[in-house]
């Protein structure tokens, strides 16, 4: 049997720490929704469990950033996703697709160290690994629209965080 060529880029991604952190974040968001619990509380529970049980992998700092960020900004993230779903609702999407989209949209809006193309590509890769055959192209289409507004959202967020000068007496 002939050996299959190895796609080094895909193989690297699947081994990369950030890819693994994103995948764990998807798992946690998916589980939190399925159990109807707060994602940040579930994250804390898993981090605590990892300190007590060596068989449980520790929670990567970037997983914490993603899950905490999505949990804190869930309404805006979900509202953004909803606004770009044509003839769909967020509730109709597979739960794993919701989790992947939430992470990607949060990264597009808040993770200034993650180029938009990386956030979208990672979401598509996660969809290939975890979801339906149609999900990668569907998520790519939705995120392609979100990418267009992400710079304005980032700029608005930065403006609200910027310190305001003291008024002169």
UniProtKB/TrEMBL annotation:
The keyword RNA-binding applies. Transmembrane segments: none annotated. Residues 19-146 form the NusB/RsmB/TIM44 domain. SUPFAM superfamilies: NusB-like. One of its GO terms (molecular function) is RNA binding. It holds the Pfam family NusB. It comes from the Bacteria. GO terms for biological process: DNA-templated transcription termination; transcription antitermination. Keywords: RNA-binding, Transcription, Transcription antitermination, Transcription regulation. One of its GO terms (cellular component) is cytosol. PANTHER family: ANTITERMINATION NUSB DOMAIN-CONTAINING PROTEIN, N UTILIZATION SUBSTANCE PROTEIN B-RELATED. Involved in transcription antitermination. Required for transcription of ribosomal RNA (rRNA) genes. Binds specifically to the boxA antiterminator sequence of the ribosomal RNA (rrn) operons. Belongs to the NusB family. This is Transcription antitermination protein NusB. It comes from Nocardia gamkensis. The lineage of its organism: Bacteria, Bacillati, Actinomycetota, Actinomycetes, Mycobacteriales. The gene is nusB.
């Amino acid at each position: 049997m002939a050996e299959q060529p190895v796609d080094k880029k895909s193989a690297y991604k699947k081994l990369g720490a950030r890819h693994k952190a994103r995948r764990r974040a998807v798992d946690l968001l998916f589980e939190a929704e399925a159990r109807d619990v707060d994602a940040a509380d579930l994250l804390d529970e898993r981090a605590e469990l990892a300190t007590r049980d060596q068989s449980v992998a520790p929670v990567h700092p970037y997983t914490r950033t993603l899950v905490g960020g999505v949990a804190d900004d869930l309404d805006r993230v979900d509202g953004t996703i909803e606004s770009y779903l044509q003839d769909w609702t967020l509730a109709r999407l597979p739960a794993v697709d919701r989790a992947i989209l939430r992470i990607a949209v949060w990264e597009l809006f808040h993770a200034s160290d993650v180029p938009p193309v990386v956030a979208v590509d990672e979401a598509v890769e996660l969809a290939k690994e975890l979801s339906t055959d149609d999900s990668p192209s569907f998520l790519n289409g939705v995120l392609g629209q979100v990418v267009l507004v992400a710079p304005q959202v980032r700029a608005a967020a930065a403006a609200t965080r910027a310190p305001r000068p003291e008024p002169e007496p």
